[in-house]
Structure formats: structure tokens, C-alpha cells
Design goal:
Blueprint: E1 3-8, H1 12-21, H2 24-27, E2 29-35, H3 38-47, E3 52-56, H4 64-74, E4 79-84, H5 89-97, E5 102-105, H6 110-144, H7 153-156, E6 158-168, H8 171-175, H9 180-197, E7 201-208, E8 211-219, H10 229-240, E9 244-248, H11 258-269, E10 279-281, H12 294-305, H13 312-325, H14 330-344, H15 368-389, H16 394-408, H17 415-421, H18 426-437, H19 441-459, H20 464-470, H21 476-487, H22 491-502
Parallel strand pairs: 1-2, 1-3, 3-4, 4-5, 9-10
Antiparallel strand pairs: 6-8, 6-9, 7-8
Length: 503
Amino acid sequence: MNLKLLIVDDEPIICQGLRMTVPWNELGVEVVGEAYDGEDALQIMQETHVDIILTDVTMPVMDGLILTEKVSTFFPHIKTIIISGYDEFEYAQKAMKLGVKDYLLKPVDIDELIELIKGMQKNIVEKKMKDMIMNMKQLLSSLVMKQESELDLAQQGYNGYQLFCSEIKDYASTIGTKDKSPIKEAWRKSITEQLMKKGVLSVSTFIDENLLLTCFTIIGESDQFPNYFLEIKETIQQEINLSISLCYSPFVKDTKGLSETYNKLIEGIKLSHCLDKSVFTFSDIPNITADIDHHKLEKRLSQFLGEENPQIHSCVDDIFSIFEGKNMFLDDIVILLKEVEKTVLTHFPEQQARIMSKGINTTVYNSYNELKALFKEDLETYVKHHQTIDQNGQYWLIMKAVQYIKEHYASDLKASEVANVINVSPNYFSQLIKQETGKHFNDYLHEVRLNQAKILLKETPYRVFEIAEMVGYKDYKYFVHIFKKSTSTTPTKYRNVVTTLEV
């Protein structure tokens, strides 16, 4: 971390001597300029970042004492070293009252100056690092709280910053029942230490159970920070035996628009499951084309479950192949499967609630495979329950009947027709449908028709009497009566409410 030093003396030869005699580069110090009086020095400090000034006391226009006072007021972060002669010691004492702790007597002892600079450098670097950490914590806090940061990087001496998010692949199955705290701490510590070895200070914070946000900065003159991200990923794999995905932002020079960069970063890491590489920038993210037909998916699942011996793994693999082909967000898949299960798995065993109906954190279940396992577990539980309560195959009969009803509800459907489809007597069918759905055939048929009517009222411009006929009611008034009896409102009022809520 190079420090910036300004030499101030009214004798150019002394300025040149101090510049040429001291091995500044070896000390990690850059001489940013020379000034021949206090006013020139102040002008340079306004235009250039300075950490230390080395100034003579007696100078024309503005002497070293006045300069020291102004620096203390306007540039409190700058450290001052006073140079004075024996007969100017009184000036040095006044400077000390102004807060200057370091002074040298003429002629300057170079070794003494070097030791003074080294001690000062250590204090400045330590303070800068503390300030950097504090500023980065403030920066990350602003991002997570969705507030625009007011941090001025230029004033802080930063040359830029970069953000990246990392997550453990297949987190739920990888971590399982292990103690998560030491694993996550080792992950965070590894990133911090790897960046520190490259001379880069960073701050990392968990913004979700399996989402680590890291910010690092560059001090001083430097080109864009090299992309060491692949190396970080590989080191974590070797040392902690964790496979991670990492999404990084571009190198940024200031904090303007930082929240937009952060949002793109979070969106990027949420699509890591769509990519064939583990380290990427959000510009690598593919386009999303998640136009899944909800009703076709329900029909597909119902057909699978309507088979006498449904192949759950084949069914789920088939459904998820569609999701993967469209690069769907995991959050969108969870929402879709919740709705599909709610419609198709209408009588899930009460003793075990559906997993997909619970709050699923997609930073934990962060891959297609993780969600696939949850969905399979739901279907297996559902099928086993019905196989257990109905060893004679009644469940599969009623599933076939339900599927037929959902496909033919718009026709003048009778219980006898459905009974004939599943090869049982009308009376036996009536017992089956009541046992499975808790409703008589006509009541269940009304439910199916009204659910479809609600969809059409919400999503289409068809008039109410047209929708009535489309869902199987020839008598418009009877449709309105049944609809109001079920929902406590008329179809027209229902449409007004649901369309208004969507605006």
C-alpha cells in the first residue's frame, strides 16, 4: 500500500535533494510533488491525494506553521513532518501545539527521516485498513438494506472496488445434517485469506444461509484487479472440499448505480444452476424463456398419477427436463409446483403436509436436482398413502375418473358416463367419488367447472354467458346461481375484483 508524500520547501535544491537522496520506492512511498511555499502546497493537496507532507518552517507567502494549521483544519488525515533549524526550535514547539508530533532538525539525518517515515507509514496503513473495512461494511449494509451508498471512493483514496457472490453447490444435500457454522466460517475465511495474500483487503457477509457477498477494494495506482476468482473457487474445493459457484461484477470506479450492480449480481448467482461453468459474470447469464403452460403441466402429472403403477422418477425427470430446457428460475419452479400440487394432489395425507407447500429457500435447495428430490418425495408420499389405504386398486380407478372429469367437464357429463369409463356400476362409482373427494359427483363436477370459470374470468375477455357455456352450463342464470352459492359473489363482481388486484 503506497503512501503519497509532498515535499514543501522554498529552496528547490533541498526539495530535489530530499527527493533524490531517500529511497522512497523501497519504503513504499511515492513523492507526488514539490511545493515552494504553503499556498502551492495547499493547491496540490486539493488536486492530489496526499498522506504525508514534509515541510520547512520558514517560507515566503505562507510559512510552515500556517500551512500546518490549515492542513489540520481542511485535511485532518494528512500527517505532517516539520523541518526546522536550531534557531527555529521555537517554531517547532508551536507546531507541536498544533498537533504535529514529528519534526526533524537541519541538516536532515536521512536515516532518522527513514525511521520516522516507517513508523508513520505503519500507523497510516493500519488506520487506512480499519477505515477501509468500516467503509466496506457500510457499503455492504447499504446494498442489503437497498439504500444508495453515500461513500465517496475518491476521497477515501480508493482506486475502485469489485463485488462477488458465492454459494455452495447442491447445498442441502452437500451440507445435510452437518454443523453448518464451521463450514460457512471456513468458506468465508478462505476467501478473505486468499485475497489478503494478493494484497487486497475484503469484507464478506452472509446475506442468506447459502449466499456469501464479498466486497474488495484496491488502494493506490493499479490496473483493473485480475480475475483471481477461478483460483479462489479451486482453493476452496481443495482445502475445504466444497464446490462453489461464484458470480462477479465488473470493476467499478465509484458507487453510483451500485444498487443496480448488486441486483444484477444476485440475479446472476440465482441462475448458476443454468450454466456449465462455476465462475462467471452476470453478463454470462442466458435469456429466460419460462413460458410453461400451467394447465398442460397439471394434465401431464394427472396422467402419470392415473396409471396403475406410476413411475415417479420418470414422471419428475420428464417435468424437470422442461424446466431445464427453459433455464427457469428456481423460485419460479417452486411457485409453479406449489400450484400444480394444490390442484392435482387434492387429497394429500393430512398427517404429512406437502413439502412444496412450505417455505422453500432456493439458496439452500439451489439446483434442479435439489428441487427435484423434494418434488419426488411429495409424489412418493402421496402415492404410497393411496396404495396403502386402497390395496384393491380403488384409488387408481378414482384417479382415472377424476382425470376424465377434468377433460370432459364442458360436456353434459353424467355420473353413469364416468362409471362406464372405469368399468364400475354407477352406484359403486358414487361411493368411490364421495369416499375420495368428500363430495357427491355433481358437487365435484361443479367445483371443477367453477375453478375453470374463475380462470377464464380472470385471464380472458369472454363475456360471462360465453364462459358459462364454455365450462358446461347451458343455462346462464343457473351458472350465476351456482357461482354465487360457491363464492358469495357474482361472476361479474369476481372478475372486477381479481382484475383490479392485478393492476
